[in-house]
């Protein structure tokens, strides 16, 4: 499980090639290009024409300078060759590094890079043209010391937090990398026997994807577009374009194997006849649909507030601070990172709806009646924007096809059925020992181990709490120990026919909800509309405490409860068409996850996120729990890109980081 750097950045980038060398004049020869931007970072590449040893200093100054006394500033110093302190550069041939990191000052001037061995000039570059960097929208930061929740990424600010000696010499690429976790952000080492983590499609009754007898036990849809109902104007949800870009790359890499092709198809989120949450029923006892309830208010339950006038005032108060008009929806859809900064600045992460109402003077009962979210959930409302999308997509033949497309890329580099239970940092060698055992094996047996120079850890924090870990900082340790996780249960049922599409009021795709407790959301398949033969629907998607209660029920009892609900919703036809085939997945009981998604409580995201962006013990934490928009595939992928860049910068590989940035996040990131 020794992974070269390109394996760590699978599908992210092709590393930059070395530029051609310049003619040798000095023992140290600087390679082009000879341009730089004020306030930015870049790599310096050199070649050696002689075997020199001792203290090597690289400086910037007038091109005619021959001494360290006549320079503008020192870029950095290290020991090379056979010097007794040169062992830190053992990654390079003869302890002579060929790549360095240059943090260009904001007010730089033209000049040359100069190399000194001791006090003797041993290298001079061609003249550098130093220009001002073009203005970018981004003014955010990456780690503590500036804005704690900036617009995703600012590499210059990141490297400013480090001591000069930490980042002057770029690390060699011949390092050993371990990636823990095989969800979509990691996809390399797995405690289970499959790729994809919480992306999980179930194919009922042993069917194949081509038979379309499937539904999703994990993510099932991606919001792509908002439409203004008044003007007809549409605008994209930009962050989810990252997933489309990944799919394009995977399809290109796998173009010789049609079985690995990924194709998006429309996901029908809204349909006229999906059931609604109401206690009212049709004359035949079935549950009314959305269009019926909209046309006939008597089919909907009227709000039942203790004090209707006070409740209206409370709702208006919430709408003023957390409502969405056209402008705000577009802002979130265009740039969720900027929206995140604004949410931090306005205190949205520090209060829940109920807490805000109490602070605004409303009594406990009114605050509890009106609040639509739990007492511990912050006001950060990105999911409202997603839920208001007008167009959605899913992956034809199952979301599973996304992680499966990675299989050829990680073949021979992954250990399935391997459960990690500890990571030890070795101070002297600056390496990490990962301890693991076969999944399902004897927990008392001795651990197997693998050693790495760096690791990416995408395992959910609720599982890490039981691991042996290095002595992380207080903030990182508290994040691991305290970050909240949601629970969920999904139940999919197969019927002999797609009877819901042939009711008096046909249900053609879409998701709905009912007032039958513990059923939650119901979603009808968007694929194969009006196809003959069996069909599969998501009969119940329940979260949080209801999920824990449902999963405590014996499986047969729970399925019987859901099937009775299907009959109440659709009529006796649901019993006639019942095949007895189903699958239930309790994410809270899943030993590889112990929960569905991260659900940061009040203040947790604002407090803990900076810790994820500060590399400790050569470990970078990634995964949806470390991202901005928890619970969505985008968040996992975004964290993977961020983690890769973070590691590249820790190693001083600025050129490679810039290439990844340009390819994957160029419209957001400042580098």
UniProtKB/TrEMBL annotation:
Annotated spans, Disordered: 275-303
Residues in the signal sequence: 1-21
Domain Amine oxidase: start-end pairs: 192-642
Pfam family, one: Amino_oxidase
Keyword Lyase among record annotations: no
Gene3D superfamilies xrefs: 3.90.660.10
Gene Ontology terms describing biological process: amino acid catabolic process
Keywords: Signal
MF terms in GO: L-amino-acid oxidase activity
Stored InterPro entries: Amino_oxidase, FAD/NAD-bd_sf, Flavin_monoamine_oxidase
Residues that span the membrane, as ranges: none
Organism superkingdom: Eukaryota
Signal in keyword set: yes
Protein name according to UniProt: L-amino-acid oxidase
């Amino acid at each position: 499980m020794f992974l070269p750097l390109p394996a760590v950045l699978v599908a992210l980038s092709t590393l930059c090639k070395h530029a051609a060398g310049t003619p040798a004049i000095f023992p140290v020869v600087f390679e082009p290009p000879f341009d730089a931007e004020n306030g930015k970072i870049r790599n310096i590449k050199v070649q050696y024409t002689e075997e020199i040893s001792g203290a090597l200093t690289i400086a910037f100054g007038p091109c005619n300078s021959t001494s360290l006394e006549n320079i503008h500033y020192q870029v950095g110093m290290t020991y090379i060759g056979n010097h007794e302190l040169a062992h830190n550069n053992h990654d390079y041939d003869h302890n002579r590094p060929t790549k360095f990191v240059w943090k260009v000052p904001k007010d730089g001037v033209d000049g040359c890079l100069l190399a000194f061995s001791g006090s003797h000039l041993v290298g001079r570059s061609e003249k550098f043209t130093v220009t001002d960097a073009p203005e970018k929208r981004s003014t955010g930061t990456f780690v503590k010391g500036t804005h704690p929740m900036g617009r995703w990424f600012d590499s210059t600010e990141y490297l400013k937090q480090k001591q000069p000696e930490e980042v002057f010499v770029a690390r060699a690429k011949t390092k050993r990398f371990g990636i823990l976790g095989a969800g979509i952000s990691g996809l390399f080492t797995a405690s289970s026997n499959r790729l994809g983590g919480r992306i999980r499609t179930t194919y009922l009754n042993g069917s194949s994807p081509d038979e379309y007898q499937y539904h999703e036990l994990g993510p099932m849809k991606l919001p792509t577009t908002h439409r203004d109902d008044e003007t007809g104007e549409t605008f994209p949800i930009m962050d989810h374009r990252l997933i489309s870009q990944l799919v394009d790359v995977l399809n290109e890499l796998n173009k010789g194997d049609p079985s690995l092709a990924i194709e998006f198809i429309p996901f029908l989120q809204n349909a006229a006849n999906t059931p609604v949450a109401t206690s009212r029923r049709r004359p035949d006892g079935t549950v009314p649909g959305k269009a019926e309830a909209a046309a006939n208010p008597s089919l909907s339950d009227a709000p039942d507030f203790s004090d209707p006038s006070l409740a209206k005032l409370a709702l208006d108060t919430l709408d003023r601070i957390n409502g969405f008009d056209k402008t705000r929806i577009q802002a979130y859809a265009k740039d969720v990172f900027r929206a995140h900064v604004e949410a931090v600045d306005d205190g949205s992460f520090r209060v829940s709806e109920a807490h805000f109402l109490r602070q605004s003077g409303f009594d406990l009962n009114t605050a509890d009646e009106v609040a639509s979210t739990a007492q511990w959930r912050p006001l950060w409302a990105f999911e409202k924007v997603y839920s208001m999308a007008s167009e959605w997509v899913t992956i034809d033949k199952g979301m599973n096809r996304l992680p499966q497309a990675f299989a050829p890329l990680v073949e021979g580099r992954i250990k399935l059925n391997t459960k990690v239970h500890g990571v030890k940092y070795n101070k002297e060698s600056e390496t990490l020992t990962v301890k693991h055992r076969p999944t399902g094996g004897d927990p008392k047996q001795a651990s197997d181990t693998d050693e790495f120079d760096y690791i990416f850890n995408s395992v959910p924090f609720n599982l890490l709490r039981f691991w042996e870990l290095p002595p992380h900082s207080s903030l990182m340790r508290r994040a691991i120990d305290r970050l909240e996780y949601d629970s969920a249960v999904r139940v999919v049922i197969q019927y002999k026919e797609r009877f819901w599409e042939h009711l008096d009021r046909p249900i053609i795709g879409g998701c709905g909800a009912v007032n039958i407790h513990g059923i939650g959301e119901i979603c009808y398949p968007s694929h194969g509309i009006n196809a003959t033969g069996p069909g599969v629907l998501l009969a119940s998607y329940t979260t949080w405490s209801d999920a824990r209660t449902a999963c405590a029920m014996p499986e047969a009892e729970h399925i019987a409860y859901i099937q009775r609900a299907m009959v109440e919703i659709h009529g006796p036809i649901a019993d006639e068409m019942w095949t007895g085939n189903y699958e239930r997945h309790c994410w809270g009981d899943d030993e590889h996850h112990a929960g569905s998604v991260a659900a940061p409580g009040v203040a947790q995201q604002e407090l803990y996120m900076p810790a994820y962006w500060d590399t400790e013990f050569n470990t970078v934490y990634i995964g949806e729990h470390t991202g901005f928009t928890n619970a969505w595939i985008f968040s996992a992928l975004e964290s993977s890109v961020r983690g890769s860049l973070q590691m590249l910068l820790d190693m001083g590989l600025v050129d490679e980081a810039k290439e990844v940035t340009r390819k994957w996040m160029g419209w957001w990131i400042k580098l």
